[in-house]
Amino acid sequence: MVTVRTVTGDIDSSALGVTLFHEHLLNDGSAAWRRPEPDDDEGWAIARTPVRMEYLGRLRNDPYVSLDNTRLDDVNLAAEEAARFRVAGGDTIIDVTPPGIGRDPQGLRQIAARTGLNIVMGCGYYLERAHPDGLSAMPIDDIADQIASDILQGTDGVRAGVIGE
């Protein structure tokens, strides 16, 4: 038996079924937000408002001009979208959102409970611009201990099941 750690507990790997391997159900990518150029009136309009269909063309080419476009922080919306995957025959989502870009262990647990999906939470770190404060000053062994703790003890009562982003 190969065990897989989900946000609601361990399962046998045979229960994984149809799996999405690299998802971000909830995250905060605002560290990647890019200020528009001073004379970019359209960019500033987009930067200051929620995402709207009229901005779709620009956002396809410049997704980080909109601060709103850098965040997925609505548990209800994430659960609705994940439920569509479940209805389409999906079974498991591996969420690789690390600390520093909005990992939300309890939010993931809520989504799993509402949808019946197996959700595996990731741990570790992403690009330097998205590192939590103080990470760059930590000794490597302390970082390794922190990642191991995410798997063995958990964060907010939820244990990680995969390392990496």
Verbal overview:
The chain is of the alpha/beta class and 165 residues long. It folds into two domains: 3-26 and 73-163, TIM Barrel (Alpha-Beta Barrel); 31-70, no CATH class. It has helices at residues 41-47, 56-61, 75-87, 105-115, 140-152, and strands spanning 3-6, 9-12, 19-23, 27-28, 71-72, 92-95, 118-123, 162-163. The strands form three sheets. Strands 3-6-7-8 form a four-stranded parallel beta sheet. The longest helix is centred in the middle third of the chain and has 13 residues, at 75-87. 28% of the residues are buried. The mean pLDDT is 95.
Shape: flat
Distance between the termini: 26 Å
* CATH fold topology of the largest domain: TIM Barrel
What fraction, in percent, of the residue positions are helical? 25-40%
Beta-strand content: 15-25%
Order of helices and strands: EEEEHHEHEHEHE
Classification by helices and strands = alpha/beta
Tally of strands? 8
Uncertain parts: none
Rg for CA atoms: 18 Å
Mean pLDDT, as a whole number?
95
Q: What CATH first level of the largest domain would be assigned?
A: Alpha Beta
Second-tier CATH architecture of the largest domain: Alpha-Beta Barrel
Major sheet description: 4 strands, parallel
Largest beta sheet: strand ordering:
3-6-7-8
How do you describe this structure in short?
This protein is an alpha/beta fold and 165 residues long. It contains five helices and eight strands, in the order ββββααβαβαβαβ. It folds into two domains: 3-26 and 73-163, Metal-dependent hydrolases (TIM Barrel, Alpha-Beta Barrel); 31-70, no CATH class.
Question: What does the secondary structure layout of this molecule look like, with pairings?
Answer:
Layout: E1 3-6, E2 9-12, E3 19-23, E4 27-28, H1 41-47, H2 56-61, E5 71-72, H3 75-87, E6 92-95, H4 105-115, E7 118-123, H5 140-152, E8 162-163
Parallel strand pairs: 3-6, 6-7, 7-8
Antiparallel strand pairs: 1-2, 4-5
